[in-house]
Amino acid sequence: MRIQNLQSFYLLFLLVFFFSFNSATSESHLQLRRGDSLSVEGDQDFLTSPDNSFTCGFLNLENSNAYWFAIWFTNSKEKTVVWTANRDRPVNGHGSKVHFRGDGTMILTDVDDTVVWQTNTTTTDVAIAKVLNSGNLVLENPQGDNLWQSFDFPTDTLLPLQTLTKNKRLTSALRKGSYGSGYFNLNFGSDNVLRLISDTPDTSSNYWPNPDFNVYINGRTNYNSSRVAFLDDMGRFLSSDQLQINASDMGYGIKRRMTIDYDGNLRIYSLINSTGLWEITWQALGQSCSVRGVCGRNAVCVYAPDPRCACPPGFEVTDPSDWNAGCKATFNETLLRSRQVKFVEIPHVDFYGFDLNTTSPLTLEACREMCASDFRCLAFSYRILGQGVCFVKSALLNGYETPDFPASIYIKVPNSLQPPNPSILYESRRMCGSAEAEQIIGSPSMYDFVPKRVKWIYIYSFCAALGAIEITIIILGWWFLFRKHGIPASVEAGYRMISSNFKRYTYAELKKATNNFKNELGRGGSGTVYMGVLSDGREVAVKKLGDVFQAQDEYSAEISTIGKINHMNLVRIWGFCSERKHRLLVYEYIDNLSLDKHLFDSNFLTWKQRFAVAIGTAKGLAYLHHECLEWVIHCDVKPENILLDGEFQPKIADFGLAKLSQRGGPGSEFTRIRGTKGYMAPEWALNHPITAKVDVYGYGVVILEMVRGIRLSNWEVADEYENEAALKSFVRTVKKKIERGSSVWVESFVDPRLKGKFYRKQAETLVQIGLSCVEEDRNKRPTMASVVQTLLECEDDAEVQISDNL
Ligand SMILES: *[C@@H]1O[C@H](CO)[C@@H](O)[C@H](O)[C@H]1NC(C)=O
Ligand SMILES: *[C@@H]1O[C@H](CO)[C@@H](O)[C@H](O)[C@H]1NC(C)=O
Ligand SMILES: *[C@@H]1O[C@H](CO)[C@@H](O)[C@H](O)[C@H]1NC(C)=O
Ligand SMILES: *[C@@H]1O[C@H](CO)[C@@H](O)[C@H](O)[C@H]1NC(C)=O
Ligand SMILES: *[C@@H]1O[C@H](CO)[C@@H](O)[C@H](O)[C@H]1NC(C)=O
Ligand SMILES: *[C@@H]1O[C@H](CO)[C@@H](O)[C@H](O)[C@H]1NC(C)=O
């Protein structure tokens, strides 16, 4: 016993010595032997991994006496904890200790000697405890067998090579700066699929992968029951349900972690050596409001434009430091049981789940009556999906806003509730760039404040006059009382995410890389593209932007938005240059030419390749429109902007340029790059507001051309009348054939060069999607998300057909 104490004293001495001289060359890693202990009081009482990247010991929250036995990254600027033994049972800052007992158990005791945590290694032959370079605390026997490891008991973080298996889960922290368990989990479901699940005191629901789609559409499988997932040391996350994720800075030598943050989002972080700060290199949800339950009861997650929690009219925040506590009513809730109620409409907002009754078809009037007459009903959601659908809600949970959600929630409030003073909240929300595009084109802004106010007052008095039940039409956002505390800082960090490969280049660097702009690859409305090789050997395409983009202060802000966009069907942007009058973009180099070269030339794609290009392109556009951090309209979808990689996977180029050029002010040269004749939706000419549906139109033309194998847009022909003719006559002929009900109509429209080698079902689907995409009325065009869904369903069909059709 005495010898062991001496030993530990000696180790402690070494440790103190090591720290006081701050020697970086320590080879002696520390280990604990039976009988040793670590004390909460000893400032130097730590275990470190041999390479000093992880430290294990006691840690407290700032200004508190609550301590945890934890492992953290040694070199990050702020202590980043990857594991705690006593997550929900902190110990006292005096007298607590971790003791490696003579019987082989490691125990953590509080000041009163109660055992707070212990390992299950009693009566084994464990001899030492040490922290490995991977961040794993292990107990080993003299033969080096691992008998216990912290990797088996993850908290909120998964380190490279730590496996997440059947019965393990990652659980988020409760709030920022807390180590306690929160409400969001990552684990395998009983159907073998890895999911993010929200388990709040009020509700439990899964939110990733998208619960509206089935397993296969989400790119997962449920047939592999091994249920194992891990992050490898290159930054790839692989799971037995076929999920594969690549960190944006994929490669060796970078310290990473995968953490489920307290806001419910799952992220991969990389440590930046030079600053000790973390960068997000992947995250599960681009839109933080997609996390179910992030804002608590009665609260709504809104974009303003950063995600925040907000209380609806008649409600106020319960606990400003904790949004999980949600909002509470400012009125006496028993008033809702009477029929003296009215409804407040909040557009584009929904409370997920808790439907007392879903009825369709139903009129808005009847839906309101159903809610008013049922005392359990607190709100109803009403949307038109072909016909009116009425959702009657018994609880206001999982509130979130989706700017393009075509429905409103109507919240029940007492008749006597006075409207609060309206406050101006929605400055310029950047949704999709569409609001901005509208302004530029000169239509009235969606968020124009004054006229709506007049309308509201009018309607309000009208309704008040009507008496009993009123529907107050309230304009988007009026009633949201934003609170500064809002959503978690890590969400904001998500908005600042810049992948580490995205950097600012000097003009000299790019001049050198392109050999003084010698090798021109192409020329377009927005600029000229040159081939280049960076000093690290990467092949790049450098685009010199035209004058439209010059002299704009916001250039770098916009560019970093675009730099964050990362999807396998979009060309990656590695960086940019903004120096004096020069504006350049640095893209990944795609070597297999653009789609037009593979479609209209003598060498042409097979059917399988065409279908894959159609799906990939749709996925890329859907990502731009619906998923990325700030939604983007491409504005120039055409075969020339769809590049194909070595495997003929499409990658969309030139997205985000419309966004960059919008800053020029009203009536600026937006028109110059606003699209390409033949692929341009009619609303361009009609001066209607530009929405994501212009891309849907362009996409429609492209897929019809892919089926047909010839240009339908005929944009090379100068005469405008001709242009329209090719597409229009095609559309007319197809529609006629379909109407006639011929069962083999599609054969005559498919590229004859394929010699009949195509899947009829897929061809029919493509033509039908194409036709709906080029509808004159943009409201009749589908969204890119629904196009993806339709195509994916049809992709499955093809696999069945493969054997008998080709
Ligand atoms: C301790 O628990 C871990 C994880 O539950 C298990 O793998 C290990 O076999 C256990 N060890 C002993 C000695 O029971
Ligand atoms: C199931 O997943 C594991 C881990 O990814 C893999 O090793 C195994 O081969 C898979 N099994 C089948 C039947 O695909
Ligand atoms: C991840 O990278 C690998 C190459 O290492 C590639 O095969 C795979 O398609 C990538 N996955 C995604 C989702 O980008
Ligand atoms: C960061 O530091 C580690 C260890 O000091 C080193 O191996 C790695 O190459 C460095 N990474 C970068 C990107 O500089
Ligand atoms: C709410 O109103 C009911 C009936 O009018 C009353 O009995 C109750 O005390 C009120 N509750 C509060 C908290 O004011
Ligand atoms: C929903 O309401 C309709 C009309 O009141 C009623 O016929 C139906 O049974 C209700 N459904 C449920 C599940 O309560």
TrEMBL record:
Apple domain: residues covered: 327-414
Domain Protein kinase: 515-792
UniProt keyword terms in alphabetical order: ATP-binding, Disulfide bond, EGF-like domain, Glycoprotein, Kinase, Membrane, Nucleotide-binding, Receptor, Repeat, Serine/threonine-protein kinase, Signal, Transferase, Transmembrane, Transmembrane helix
InterPro entries: Apple, Bulb-type_lectin_dom, Bulb-type_lectin_dom_sf, EGF, Kinase-like_dom_sf, Pan_app, Prot_kinase_dom, Protein_kinase_ATP_BS
Positions of the EGF-like domain: 285-321
Principal localisation: membrane
Family matches, as SMART domains: APPLE, B_lectin, PAN_AP, S_TKc
Signal peptide: 1-26
Entry EC no(s): 2.7.11.1
Reaction catalysed by this enzyme: L-threonyl-[protein] + ATP = O-phospho-L-threonyl-[protein] + ADP + H(+); L-seryl-[protein] + ATP = O-phospho-L-seryl-[protein] + ADP + H(+)
Topology of this chain in the membrane: Single-pass type I membrane protein
Cellular component GO terms, alphabetical: extracellular region; membrane
Cell compartment(s), UniProt: Membrane
Domain (Bulb-type lectin) ranges: 23-152
Biological process terms in GO annotation: proteolysis; recognition of pollen
Transmembrane feature ranges: 456-481
Positions bound to ATP: K544
GO molecular function: ATP binding; protein serine/threonine kinase activity
Family: Belongs to the protein kinase superfamily. Ser/Thr protein kinase family.
Protein name stated in the entry: Receptor-like serine/threonine-protein kinase
Organism: Olea europaea subsp. europaea
Lineage: Eukaryota, Viridiplantae, Streptophyta, Embryophyta, Tracheophyta
